[in-house]
Structures are given as structure tokens and as C-alpha cells.
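During the practical work, I worked with a single protein chain and the C-alpha cells that describe its fold, as given directly below.
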Amino acid sequence: MRSIRSWLLLALLALLATAVAFGGVLTYTSARYQVDQLLDEELRQVALSLRDHARLDTERIERSATQPDQRLLVQVDDVRREQPYRSRDISPLPNASSEGFRDIEHAGERWRVFSLPNEVQVIQVGQPLNQRSARALRITLGILAPILLLVPVTAGLLWWIVGRALRPLANLGVELAQRQPGSLAPVAFAALPDEIRPLVAALNDLLRRLEVAFEQQRALAADAAHALRTPLAAVTLQAQLARRAGEGPQRNAALQRLEAGVRRASHLVAQLLALARLDPDAAREPAASLDLAALVRDATDELAALASEAQITLRNSLPASAPARGYEAALRMAVTNLLDNALRYTPAGGTVEISLRDDGDGWRLAVSDSGPGLPAEQRERVFDRFYRAPDSKAPGSGLGLAIVREVARLHGGRTVIADGPGGKGLTVGLWLPADRPGAARAESA
């Protein structure tokens, strides 16, 4: 059933009907018990009143009525008479030898009989049990009649009450339907009942996250447009110079500069696409178990040739294996960006070292270089998108460390930045949860 109102109304009406039926059964049972007590006492009193007239002269007693629906049957068995006296023209009750009540089958009916013997007579007073059932039923109907008359009124009230209780849901639906497509303002809590507030709180949280995501997308688009403007303008200028240049060294130099500009623009576009893929709402495969040490070792081997060409010593300190859980492509991108960033800022003859160690709760990856370092006031800003240090001369897009931070957030980790070994250079660290019992697990944002 899709309608909450219909379901509630039917459930409440069924509960009401069940309560009335159960109450009717209890009322009938109670009425029947009271009727039995009252009429048993009546039978007993009639028998006692006859006993007090010891040795009744049954010859002088006349039948009080001959109607078959007479309430009581009085029978007196007298040893002096062949036939017992009966107040109704009906077959004789079976004789009784002891005082008390008993239920018997007689003349096709169930009877309740009280027997009271004396010296020469046995007095029996009986009554059909169906008379008791009929009286108890009449009492029950008399009690339940007002309640049954109130059932339609109660059903109407229940319909109104359920509708009134569900009105906030209807109002919420109307409010959301009237909103503009771009409106992400939170829904007001003031007039909502407590039962709906968790739903509205979850909706407001979703709206807040959507607003943050949209703002990030707008900022990314604006930053991308700003960042691409300069390299594209440079590429256009170099193309114009190459076209005007004649054959010879001047043309070759222009083409080389054009090729370098295209590479820078391509690198920037690749970094922007990588950053977009790390968006929390982007679709991706579930996190999987992986060996972080093997991943770091592969990334180091890929950049070994670049380090050798720049005359930089590239060392690593890695365990045999480092079980973790996450997204392999994103982690490989983060490690590559850390190493690439360190190699860019390390002068010839310098050293870049990457280490991985277990700190008890997870894996701590650190990339240290012997470059110029970074002032303390700029260390947090280097993780912002498109930020570059004012005195930086190394080529780059300003997105490498921003990607590292997004990868850390995606895996439930964190980034740290500090001085390099011996207070020289810079160390950028990435902490990730380990993949072992009791360790934190990476989850999709």
C-alpha cells in the first residue's frame, strides 16, 4: 500500500474493530457470569422457600403456568405420591440424591438444576441454560450499542486526525515543489514535528553537500579558465612566430618553444582532469586491497630516468610489503605528484628520498628533498589549487599537491608538511589507513 494515510486509517480501524470485538467477548463473558450467579441464587432461594414448608401438600399445589417458556421448573418428588409434582407440563427431571447444582440434558435442552432433599421429599428447581445465554446477550448488546453507534463517528475522527498528522509532509512536498531548480537553501525546521526532522536534516545535509560540490565545480571551472589562458596565449604566440620565421635555427627554436608550450598546456589539462576524477561524487569502482610498497616502488622506478637526467639521487626506504585499501590509480597519481614535485625543486647534485613506514595505525609515506624548502607561512597554501610560491622558478601548474590532498581525503587519510632532513629542504607526508583487522578502512566519500 503506497498511501500512508490509507494504511494508518485501515490499521486504526482494524485495531478499533478488534478492540470492540474483544470488548464484546469480555462483556458477554462478564454478563454471563453475573447472570449465572444471579439465577443460581434465584433457584436456590426458590428451593429453600419450598423446603421451609416441610412436607408440602402437593395435592393442594396448583401449576402456576403451563406456558412452555416459563422461566423456572419446580419439581417435588414425594414418597407418598406415585408421580412427582411439576410446575410445568414437561417430562420429569431425573431424581437427585444430594443437595447442589448440576447441569443436565433434559427435554432436548441443557438445564441448570438445584436439588434440595428433605425427610420425605426432593425439591428440584431448574431452568434452561439458553435463557441465561439470551439474557447475557441482551445485556451485552445493551452495553455495546452506544459504542457501535460511535464507530462511524470514530472512523471520521480518525480520518481527520491522520490527515492532520500528515499535513506537515504534504506542506513539505508543496514547499519543495515550488522551489526554483537552482535553490539549495536549507528547509526550515521550526514548524516540523520531531518525526520528520531527521528526514529534513538529511535533506538539508544533501543540499549543503550539493552546494559545496557545485561551488567546487564553479571554482574549478573558473580556475581552469584562468590557468589555461596564459599557456594557450603563449602557444598561439609561438605558433605565429614559427609561421613568420624562415628556415634555419630561428624556426627550429620557435618550434621547440611551441612544443614546450603544448606540453605545459597538456600537462595542465591532464592535472585538471585528474582533479575532477577525484571529486567525492564522481562514480568509481569500490576500494580494493593493494600493496602500497609495491605501488611506491613502481612509481619510483618510472621517475628514476628523470632523476638521473637531472643529476638527482633518488633513494627509497620501503618495507617488503604494505597492505592497504584504496584506489590504486589515485594513489599512484599522488605518489607520482609527490616525487615529481620534489624533483622539480631539487637542484642538480641534490637528493630526493621516499620512505614508507608503519606507525601502528596506518602507513606514513614521506618524500624529502634537499631543495630550497618553503617558508612556514606558505606551507598550508601549497595544497590549494593553482597556488605557486611567489619566488618559485620551477615549471608547474600548481595542482600537484592539491591532487595529493584530495587523494588523502578520499582515503580517509591526511597530508603533512615539514622541514627536510637536518632542517634543509622540505618533507611532504601522506598518511593512509592500513588494511588489517582493527585498522581504518578507506571508504568512498
Q: What stands out?
A: The chain has three domains: 4-137, 197-277, 288-433. Residues 177 and 375 are 52 Å apart (CA to CA). Confidence is low (pLDDT under 50) at residues 62-68, 437-445.
